[in-house]
Design a protein that fits this description.
SufE family protein; single chain; three-stranded antiparallel β-sheet; 5 helices; Fe-S_metab-assoc_dom; Sufe protein. Chain: A
């Protein structure tokens, strides 16, 4: 997954994701697609997988590492669970490389638009919410 600035706006990225998920008729195929996206994420080093980078509120272990370059924010996120890893890939596609202002202006609850909100467990939704809160906090500085 690239760490360069995104070439399209957040709304376009979410629309592209919606269209990608709409290609699949059943949820098993959508879960496979989600997990495939998660496998594309860069692997974190053992030095990055430390307690300080763990996101509380996630049932699975999720590591979150923000980095600011000027006004752009970049994130490294990883999980030890395949579906959660896929959900983190979605977060990265939407928010990675964005300016703090862009991130602050977006309603972070884009999973509903993708049709995932009602198909992932409450604990996974809570975990994604915890990561999104970290993204928003990084954007606030």
């Amino acid at each position: 997954m690239s760490v360069e600035a995104p070439v399209s706006g957040i709304e376009e990225v979410i629309t592209d994701l919606e269209e990608g998920f709409a290609l699949f008729d059943d949820w098993e195929d959508r879960y496979r697609y989600l997990m495939e996206m998660g496998r594309e994420l860069p692997v974190l080093t053992e030095a990055e997988k430390v307690e300080a980078n763990l996101v509380p509120g996630c049932q699975s272990r999720v590591w979150f590492i923000p980095r600011r370059e000027g006004d752009q924010l970049f994130f490294r996120i990883n999980s030890d669970a395949a579906i959660v890893q896929g959900l983190m890939a979605l977060v990265l596609r939407v928010f990675n490389g964005r300016t703090a202002g862009e991130i602050r202006e977006v309603d972070p609850n884009f999973l509903q638009r993708l049709g995932l909100g009602e198909h992932i467990s409450l604990s996974r939704r809570n975990g994604v919410a915890a990561v999104l809160a970290r993204v928003q906090a990084a954007a606030r500085g």
